[in-house]
Write a structure and sequence with these properties.
The protein is mostly helical. Helix 1 (6-22) runs antiparallel to helix 3 (99-145). The chain is built from three helices and two strands; from the N terminus they run H-H-E-E-H. It is 53% helix and 3% strand.
């Protein structure tokens, strides 16, 4: 069982999110990377790795933001039977919190109890091994004295 420390989880999410955000392709919205980033940002209400300015790279001269960086004005962009056009996501509308911090908190919330349970099992196993060795030693000692 692998145990990640707070630092390792933070580093893992930071490296992954930073890399994925830099690879975001505004010219082709239907890439696997874009779908992954859009899904994370929409689900966790976050934008970019550290914040929305992560998208303002040299290659993004228009300072575009993915639509997933902003909360939809209308849920599911549908009112009755009519589809509402998506509003362009701007700096003013963008989520302020970066996804690294949100993901790190979620992962720690999951891994914390799992790690505690795993460590408890390891301690129980070691105690069982210690008692088994002690018991074997006492049996061996009793046979030698007879």
């Amino acid at each position: 069982m692998v145990f990640y420390s707070n630092f390792q989880i933070g580093t893992l999410t930071q490296d992954t999110m930073s890399k994925r955000v830099k690879q975001y392709d505004f010219s082709n919205s239907n890439t696997t990377n874009n779908n992954l980033i859009d899904s994370v940002q929409s689900h966790f209400n976050c934008c970019g790795a550290f914040n929305f300015t992560d998208y303002f790279l040299e290659t993004n001269q228009l300072h575009q933001l993915p639509s997933s960086c902003c909360a939809p004005l209308v849920p599911n962009n549908v009112i009755g039977n009519f589809s509402v056009p998506k509003v362009r996501c701007t700096e003013e509308l963008a989520y302020r919190q970066g996804c690294i911090e949100v993901l790190r908190e979620k992962l720690l919330k999951v891994y914390g109890p799992v790690s505690g349970f795993g460590l408890t099992l390891i301690v129980i196993q070691l105690l069982g091994l210690l008692f088994a060795c002690f018991f074997a030693y006492s049996i061996k000692k009793s046979y030698q004295t007879v």
